[in-house]
Amino acid sequence: MVRSPLAVAARLAGLLLPGLLLMAIPAVYAGEAGDNGAPTGHATVVYLVRHAEKASGGKDPELTEAGRARALTLSRTLGDAGIDAIHSTDFKRTRQTAAPLAERLGIEVRTYDWDELQALAAAMRAAGGRHLVVGHSDTTPELVGLLGGEPGPAIDEPSEYDRLYIVTIAPDGSVTSTLLRYGEM
After folding, report:
1. Cβ(166)–Cβ(26) below 8 Å
2. Is the separation of the CB atoms in 91 and 51 below 8 Å?
3. Which domain holds residue 93?
4. % of the chain surpassing 90 pLDDT
């Protein structure tokens, strides 16, 4: 199949733009300057995703081949984002989604209780830094809201795995959130 140069350029821009945004949006809130120009604080940046595509059946299914590919895409997408901590519920599908990035960065995945989202939000705010949280179709938007971000409409449980939220909490407590898409749709 021969593609026009315009189609190739549009596809390339579609692949590069999310990565550039991942780095640029949090950089805007990287710190406030005091009277002498020195930084007075740093933003807390939380990247949130639902686990990748899961196999059907059972209470704790593994990822499908498409899910493993999406987890690798997540690792490539966030590999240079400066992630300090990775959080996952204690399910195969969430741990397997987090694993490629954790291995790439040499970070141990921290397990959190999906029933204690308020505590997780408070802990990340207190710790600062940059976090990846891998959750579920119901917990991910809920946590976005608890962090002060805009969760948008409910995630379509059977088919939506490509949301990537970025919640940035500035030193003054103001919050911005961005919703991107990653991987194949």
Report:
1. yes
2. yes
3. 5-181
4. 75
